Amino acid sequence: MYKIAVVGDKDTVLAFKSLGVDIFPVLNEKEANFTITKLAKENYAVIFVTEQVAKEIPEKIAQYRNQMIPAITLIPSNRGTLGIGIGEVKKSVEKAIGVDILFGREGEE
Questions:
Q1: Residue 109 and residue 102: Cα distance in Å, rounded?
Q2: What is the spatial distance between Cα 48 and Cα 70, in angstroms, rounded to a whole number?
Q3: What pairing do the DSSP bridges indicate for beta strands 44-50 and 3-8?
Q4: 108: nearest Cα among 33, 84, 9, 95
Q5: What is the pLDDT of residues 73-91, one digit of tens each?
Q6: What are the C-alpha distances in Å from 77 to residues 11, 63, 82, 89, 93?
């Protein structure tokens, strides 16, 4: 059975505990890299990562970008959004269909 996890700062991930999602608070880049690698090996199908953590580990996020499992999804933290998550969605949509349906511009390559 696949599981869902949230990786990020303690204050943000605690909000997900009541939803039954496994939470993994991290304090730095090293912990984040280790945790995501570990979760990917332990049947986690979806790993939500806060944008603040993701901006510190872009190589690790990119490592899983083209894999079905785990799906790494960027979310805002309790401090707000950095726009990284929506940017990733926008790039994926443009790559798939060649048009920016979110903001109304044709894909630029």
A1: 17
A2: 10
A3: parallel
A4: 95
A5: 888 876 756 566 555 655 5
A6: 8, 22, 9, 17, 23
